[in-house]
């Protein structure tokens, strides 16, 4: 079987068992603050397990894109070095939500593996939960009995809580699990040592392929277990590992999941896979990381410096670094492999093919940027080793700086150090790494209390905010949450007019009140599908009825901006082309921000045309039409609504239209009833935020009017200052030309002054042995002092110059040496300036011939000059 057949066979098997086949959720998580990425198949069903949502189907199966590179589930460092860990991988899974349980899950797993896939039964081992005294849990004898009907007892092993008890997190649904392991060793190895002795021992050829989780408990914040009202099944099978077993391979990377990528990479690098272990590891790392990065970008996550974007950037940089170090790639290369990936995945995951230009461009730009950073880091490393000739150790903090600032993995630093005869202070590096982790951990610390249930008869919050901004409500549950910023209360209501932040639109604010208390709602968010109201106080009588009232002014302004975003999206496609797709948005009461795919800067004429189209549509006062509970297929194929990659849509969707032939979008946000309510639309900025991604910011209504009036006021003031009633642009250009001429004259005067000062200072030099030393405090702008020092150092040979100038309470230093002192006497301005700067409580750096420093302690200046002179005397005497 090829990979595609294996995947489809799994789905068809569970379709025959009356499972609904659902699409993979996006790899990037949108509404769950506990996750950056989908890291398990169960993520999209989390609310069902938590009891926040009722399952539409009691039996479900799918193949889920997963990413494991951070937090508890982090396989990054194993990737490429072993044969079966990956960053991005597919998880095949089947679920039961309160329907079948252990018996069926076990029997069907065995049927699929041994009768459909025809895996040799003698190569499979089973583990079941062995119990835990602390949690007062007995061994899972029930699962053991079911397995015993299918497998000989010597192949069934009891496992520890670590291996055979699955938990969602510190709190939440959990339960025992039963794992299926495959022994893919040679016959001789299997005869020599039974596979049962290698299960869960990290043996690369005795691997877990399927985990059957039986969710029946809820872990409370006090650590105790409580029975769930319904029992669920959650299974996950590693697709890549399954392919290796079925295709008779010892490594996932030898299957057709990865081989086309590795072959393409081998051709690009002119290296043959399988001949050099270091190069093989590099190829495996790159093939794996390409998949992770490409799918993340296609799902809407661009590389950046924080959050999920930083993780994606790290993965890509790791791939580039392996190519740079081991395969000789000094130019961008990863992006050239995206086409191969698109072809391989298009039947099951068409998003890469659909967004091929964007994904390739983003990766190429990121590669080019990092290669420049890598080059800078290597120069920094070379400078460090040059300054520490004779030493044998790379400082741990410096190694951490390379890792943190320049993206150097520690193994690259160790490799470079070894080539120069250095070792790396790993203790110091690990201290820096641990400090960084502690900072991140503390920044993310959140203490959540248990939910306090007030009314148990409500299954799901009903949102009434499309038609009402006031609603009589009951509190269903609440909890107190403590973060670094302070405490707040999270409240769930039976129904709510408050819109929860999603789809780019910010959450509503307002109040929750009755005759007893007045609670401010600071924000409304959505965690998975649970609407949570962030409140400033704990309700004193939560069982009371409350009036929920949304801030009407903010809601209306937000609706104006959201509707204007739809109009602008349609106008952009009309002006720039149908390749324009939304890649992110933010809509609040102040402005709208819209990110979209486009490969060039928009011209002034294009921006004006977009503005004109939107304002014309506003003046037409088009009615909005909202279609609720529309089939997703009908919305896309018949109504022409645009579905965004990276979004998870239900089978029933909401469609918002402004003229069926102009703007038709899937959207859950709030909108105006007629476009005329928007008033005025004005674009205030347009620019790039990443390769192939542009961002427009715009304002509407009174904000747009105020902006235009302010611009007109500024023009009026400029006209008054310039004087006259002629062409304002010509007048400003004339002033600019005059200013440029004056600047050139000033620069000429300063240059002449510098030359005169250089001659005067040279005449004041002191002969120290063979060295002419200039050591003076002068009155000059700090930015001109560097030019002056450079003039002095080339004026004549054997010149050593130290200049200082004061600016209120700040001291600026400039140190320079003529070239002969550097070559003959090994003078180094960069090293010496750092030593001198300590005396004025400062720091600095530069190059061997010229360096600068600044400090905040003028009292130390005399010591600086004395120390400099003593250094020159020592050099003169000792050569």
Class derived from helix and strand content: alpha+beta
Radius of gyration in whole Å, from Cα?
A: 34 Å
Distance between the terminal alpha carbons, to the nearest Å? 76 Å
Q: Quick one: biggest sheet?
A: 9 strands, mixed
- Report the uncertain regions: none
Number of helices: 25
| Mean of all residue-level pLDDT scores | 90
How many beta-strand elements? Answer: 36
Work out the strand percent.
Answer: 25-35%
Binned, the helix content reads: 25-40%
Shape: globular
What does this molecule look like?
With 879 residues, this protein is α+β, with helices and mostly antiparallel strands. Strands 1, 2, 5, 6, 7, 8, 9, 10 and 11 form a nine-stranded mixed beta sheet that branches. A six-stranded antiparallel barrel has the order 17-18-22-21-20-23. Helix 2 (46-50) links the parallel strand 1 (20-21) and strand 2 (59-67). The radius of gyration is 34 Å and the shape is globular. It starts with a helix and ends with a helix. The model has no long low-confidence stretch (mean pLDDT 90).
What is the fold's blueprint, element by element?
Layout: H1 3-16, E1 20-21, H2 46-50, E2 59-67, E3 69-70, E4 73-74, E5 88-97, H3 102-116, E6 124-129, H4 141-148, E7 156-159, H5 161-164, E8 165-167, E9 172-183, H6 187-192, E10 206-219, E11 225-238, H7 239-246, H8 259-269, H9 277-298, H10 307-326, H11 338-345, H12 351-354, H13 356-387, E12 393-394, H14 396-406, H15 410-419, E13 423-424, H16 426-443, E14 447-448, E15 452-453, E16 462-463, E17 470-483, E18 486-493, E19 495-496, E20 510-513, E21 518-527, E22 530-535, E23 545-550, H17 552-576, E24 582-587, E25 592-597, H18 604-619, E26 624-631, H19 632-638, E27 652-658, E28 663-666, E29 681-690, E30 693-700, H20 701-722, H21 728-763, E31 766-768, E32 771-777, H22 782-793, E33 799-807, E34 810-817, H23 819-825, H24 829-837, E35 842-846, E36 850-855, H25 861-878
Parallel strand pairs: 1-2, 6-7, 12-13, 16-19, 32-33
Antiparallel strand pairs: 2-5, 3-4, 5-11, 6-9, 8-9, 9-10, 10-11, 14-17, 15-17, 17-18, 17-23, 18-22, 20-21, 20-23, 21-22, 24-25, 25-30, 26-27, 27-28, 29-30, 31-32, 33-34, 34-36, 35-36
Helix pairs in contact: 3-4, 8-9, 9-10, 9-13, 10-13, 14-16, 17-18, 21-22
